[in-house]
Amino acid sequence: MCVSAGIEVNLSAVFPFVQIPELSKGSVLIRERSRVEETLQAMRRAGVSSLQVRAHSHHILFVVGSLQMKELLNTYYPIEIDSNRSAEEKLPLMVEWWTKVHELLIQQKIRKDMLTQAVKESNAMLRDGYKEFFEHLAEHQVPLLIFSAGVGDILEEVIRQNQVFHSNVHIISNYMDFDQTGVLQAFKGPLIHTFNKREGALSHAAGLRELQGRPNVLLLGDSLGDLTMADGVSKPHNILTIGFLNDQVEERKELYANSFGIILVKDETMDVPNAILRYITSSRDNK
C-alpha cells in the first residue's frame, strides 16, 4: 500500500519488493517507495558491520497496576497521541505525567527484591517475533539501543526473563534509585519522556564505542518523538524509519506517512523488521 495526497493506493503489484515480500502486506504503508527501496539496497551493500538499531518500548506501568496509575495513563496518553497538538504543547504535559508516575511509584515504596516476581506475575509481553529480532542482532553483533519513557529496571527484567538480554542490548530509560534497605527512594538522572529521547540518544550514544563506524540506522518507533532517537549518530549515511501506528489511525495516518519511511498499521508483530534484517544481513559480504 502507498499513501499519496491522503489517498491510499495499492501499488504492491506494480512496484513489488520482490526480495522482501512482507513489505507488500496490507498493513504496510509507504509513501516514497523508491526511496525506501534505495535505502534498503544501500544498507545491504554496506553490510551488517555498518548497522545499528534503535527502538522504542511501550510504557511499562504494570508492576504497580494501581487505579491511580491507570487514571494517569487514561488522562495523558490521549494527549500524547493527539494529532491536533504540537510537540511544544505536549512537552510540559508529558513532563507532568511522568513526574506524577515517579512520585506515585516512590510513594508505594517498591522494593528492589520484588521486581523479579512482579514481572513474572504480570502480563507483560514483547511483540510477536521478538526472539528472532533479538537473536538475529546478537548473532551479527549489531548494537540495539532501546529507548523507553517507562522504568528501565522493569524493562530490563522483562527482556531478561524472555532470555534475550544479550551483550549488544543497551537501554536508555528512567532507572530507580534504591536506598540501603532496597526501597525505592528516587529516580536517577534527568527525566526521560516521549518527547526528549533526543537528549538520551545524544548522551548515551557518545559513550558507546561499539556504535563507531556504524552510520546506517534502522529505527523503530510508535510516536513522532521517537524519530529523534537517531540523533547523535556520527556522520549518518542511511536511516530507515519504521513507525507502528495502532491508535487513532485515520487521524494520524497522513502525519505518519510524512514522517516515517515505512508505516505498520495495527501490526503488533516484528514480521517486517525481521524481514528487513534478514535482507540486510543476507548479502554475500555478510556470510
Automatic annotation (TrEMBL):
Q: What reactions does this protein catalyze?
A: N(7)-methyl-GMP + H2O = N(7)-methylguanosine + phosphate; CMP + H2O = cytidine + phosphate; a ribonucleoside 5'-phosphate + H2O = a ribonucleoside + phosphate
The question of whether Magnesium is a record keyword is answered with yes
Which EC number(s) does the record attach to this protein? 3.1.3.5
For this record, the Gene Ontology CC terms, alphabetical, are: cytoplasm
One Gene Ontology BP term is:
nucleotide metabolic process
Q: Which GO terms describe its molecular function?
A: 5'-nucleotidase activity; magnesium ion binding; nucleotide binding
Its predominant location is cytoplasm
For the keyword Metal-binding, the answer is yes
Keywords, sorted A to Z: Cytoplasm, Hydrolase, Magnesium, Metal-binding, Nucleotide metabolism, Nucleotide-binding
Q: Which InterPro entries match?
A: HAD-like_sf, HAD_sf, Pyrimidine_nucleotidase_eu
Q: Where found, per UniProt?
A: Cytoplasm
Q: Which family does it belong to?
A: Belongs to the pyrimidine 5'-nucleotidase family.
Tell me, in a sentence or two, what this protein's role is.
Specifically hydrolyzes 7-methylguanosine monophosphate (m(7)GMP) to 7-methylguanosine and inorganic phosphate. The specific activity for m(7)GMP may protect cells against undesired salvage of m(7)GMP and its incorporation into nucleic acids. Also has weak activity for CMP. UMP and purine nucleotides are poor substrates.
Q: How is the subunit organization of this protein annotated in UniProt?
A: Monomer.
- From the Swiss-Prot or TrEMBL record, give the protein name: 5'-nucleotidase
- What organism does the record attribute this protein to? Echeneis naucrates (Live sharksucker)
Q: Write the lineage as a comma-separated list.
A: Eukaryota, Metazoa, Chordata, Craniata, Vertebrata
